[in-house]
Amino acid sequence: VDLSFGHAKARFIPIYVTPLRVAPAAAPSPLPTPAPGQKGQLKLTRKEPAASPRISLQPAAPDQDDLSRSAFMESVKASMQSTGDLVLVVDDEMAFRSLIKRSIRKFSPNIQVIEALNGKEALEKLTEIREKHKREPLFIVTDLSMPLMDGWELVEMLKKDYQSRGLHQGIPVIVYSSTNGERGTFFGKKTIHQNGAGYSPLIKVAKEACIDATKYDAKGEEGLVTWLQYFVEHG
């Protein structure tokens, strides 16, 4: 098409556009209709997406050696934490009490050592142990020469204690003394030798300063340590 505007001419070229045809969407499939007089149920199901595969990590079952080691370690731990055993040490000299305490803890660090300065205090401590811990000491270590109540009288009182309860023996006692084990009294002589005390079980160890140790079971620190170890391991 040519158009003239004065001296100017313009040419227009017609463009034909073909209309775009869009196909109608497919109609959804009809839902099933129940027959007349029949009750129907409509059940919709949704398909779950397929689960991605997973790797399950399970701990390996322990073998018998692992179980044995575990049981052993638990036993060791229980032993190390045990504070049930007690020992009563009776001596008026602190140096000897410290020596005995160190020797006992060398074999069993967890044993509780209770100290007394004489026989009278020892009997009081024994009563406290029985009331508080509901048990007897593992054993008793006592000197003979002490104030207020000496070792001879203490052993005699301990003997009366277990006999009064109908027992044939009492708490194991280790006598650790620098004397010859005998003492003269107004009523005669007291001795811990030749079953003179009549106490059972009783072990006699002479201190280094003892002049006559022939009737003792052992002598010196070495003899004491040997018997302490025995009672700690077999108590």
Question: Any key phrases for this structure?
Answer:
single chain; 235 residues; six-stranded parallel sheet; 10 strands
Describe this structure in words.
This protein is an alpha/beta fold and 235 residues long. The chain has helices at residues 64-81, 94-107, 119-133, 151-164, 220-234, and strands at 2-5, 8-11, 86-90, 112-116, 139-142, 173-177, 182-185, 188-191, 202-206, 218-219. The longest helix has 18 residues, at 64-81.
Helix content: 25-40%
As residue ranges, the low-confidence spans are 75-82
SSE order in H/E notation? EEHEHEHEHEEEEEH
Distance between the termini: 130 Å
Count of individual helical segments: 5
Number of strands: 10
Shape: globular
Secondary-structure topology with pairs:
Blueprint: E1 2-5, E2 8-11, H1 64-81, E3 86-90, H2 94-107, E4 112-116, H3 119-133, E5 139-142, H4 151-164, E6 173-177, E7 182-185, E8 188-191, E9 202-206, E10 218-219, H5 220-234
Parallel strand pairs: 3-4, 3-5, 5-6, 6-9, 9-10
Antiparallel strand pairs: 1-2, 7-8
Helix pairs in contact: 2-5, 3-4
Question: Quick recap of the structure?
Answer:
By secondary structure, this protein is α/β, with parallel strands linked by helices.
